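task queued by scheduler; priority normal; single chain, no ligands, no partner chains; default sampling; output format set to structure tokens
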Amino acid sequence: MTAADRYPIPAARARAELVIERSRFVCTVSRAESPEAAHAFIREMQREFEDATHNCWAFVAGPPGSSARIGMSDDGEPHGTAGRPMLTVLMHSGVGEIVAVVTRHYGGTKLGTGGLVRAYSAAVQEALARLERRERVETVDVKLRVGYAAFAAVRNLLPGHEGELLDERFGDNVELLVRVPASNVDALRVAVGNATSGQGTFGLE
């Protein structure tokens, strides 16, 4: 198992609101499986809060902590006071495929650079505290061909490797189509080889 194969992602949107020195900060977080999905969500939030002073955002469109597909924007706030601290919180959250938009309605009191960093960070942290998570598991489909003598033994291997039996066909041999987490493929390959004394075939779909 590796971090890239399975990790927590948002199960649903979450929203939190903070009021700091009369400025209202509303953070909304959602799943972003790609940069395109992140930007679509950002545009949606910009439409919902079109009267806001700022709609700052950040996203990590990949595994937790991965910097391969990230983005951020201060949206008019002083450079480095909104998007960067928001991204930092997301990068250390342990959640992947996530986007956050913090909407600010200015309350008339300037918070200063440090105050803004703390406010935007806190808004994201509050939304993350309310976020429902689910596990994302990368899967692959494999085709097994085994003899009838080994069929029961091979089928009994599947639960231990989190394999889901999608199809089975009976002919000269038994063909099984199995969906399995990518991180378990090698272990299942070895187990099938042992169960069939090396006579079974194992191929990726």
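post-processing summary
- The chain is about 30% helix and 35% strand.
- The longest helix spans residues 112-129.
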